[in-house]
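In response to reviewer comment 3 from the previous cycle, which asked for concrete evidence that the modeling workflow produces usable outputs, we include below a single protein chain processed end to end. The sequence was submitted unchanged, and the resulting structure tokens are shown without manual editing.
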Amino acid sequence: MISEFEAWTEFLGADYSSFYIGLLTGFLFGIFAQQSRFCLRSAVLEFWRKQKGRMVPIWLLAFSLAFFLTQLLLFNQTIDISKIGYLNASGSLSGALIGGAIFGVGMILARGCASRLLILSATGNIRALLSWVLIAIVAEQTIRGILSPSRSFIVGLYSISPSIRDMSTYLPEGSGLVFGFILFCSGLYLGAKAQLSLWQFVTAIGVGFAVILAWFLTGLHASVSFDIISVQSISFIGPSVEALNSLFAIIPLKPGFEIGMIAGVFAGSFMASLFGKEFKFAFFTKESGFFRYVIGAFLMGFGGVLAVGCSVGAGLSGVSVLSLTALVSLVTMVVFAGLTDKLLNG
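The workflow returned the following structure tokens.
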């Protein structure tokens, strides 16, 4: 199998191999996320409002499966930890704290995080599409545009070394596996208690499976390629920037994991919405508002870059490899999203 995979990647070349890996994993994520209604914002609202619903179990099932199986890959040394960006470079706790907080506020205002907005865009939601485009534009300006000085200042307030950022270096060996297994069992219990249907169980777990598949395939690609390949998984801030730049030819199109993943997520969600007869155009109305989406998208674009990831990039992919900055980002997203909802809705 490995020899066949190596031959396939050599035939296509490093860039196109990465593109198709991104396309496959993104496509699966798009289908499962659209069908399960996977959304951190919805889970946060359900949690803070103390409602008995299905969004918390669905989110926990996806998160815990991604966490447990990623830890299993790392424990078995199936993927090279030295090639994971969340762990092998210096990080910023100040960026994680402030960025996560800003992102959490933004996803409440825009009624969805970056991943959810892309998923909804493919189902005909014009509000979500505009918000996703704005997130990518603001993220681009935060990375290398007019907002980059602010980013550099915030990120520089409190930097940490890779050895601190990688929590596995100071946690007992195998603790990630144990914690992941407990979380997954908790997700199964809560899902049964919430009376999730079999399809909801399958699609929620499928979201987590897409995350782990991306880790596995990019890790396998890195191990057989002579080119430098990043080991990565599903994320939506940086890849959205790359996809938008390529779409408008701001930067010449270069196939890669990020562009393939964004295209795959859109295609998967679109196909799932068609088969489920859920495709429907949705525009801005007086009830939905307009400026709250604009403000929310701006905050997520800026905050997502500071946090080095969105609710999926940091919240699932980053935390699954025990990145301290990703964990801090996820926690602050949850806390500040809850506070924002409390402030807006009492």
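The longest helix spans residues 198-224. We consider this sufficient to address the reviewer's concern, and the full set will be provided in the supplementary archive.
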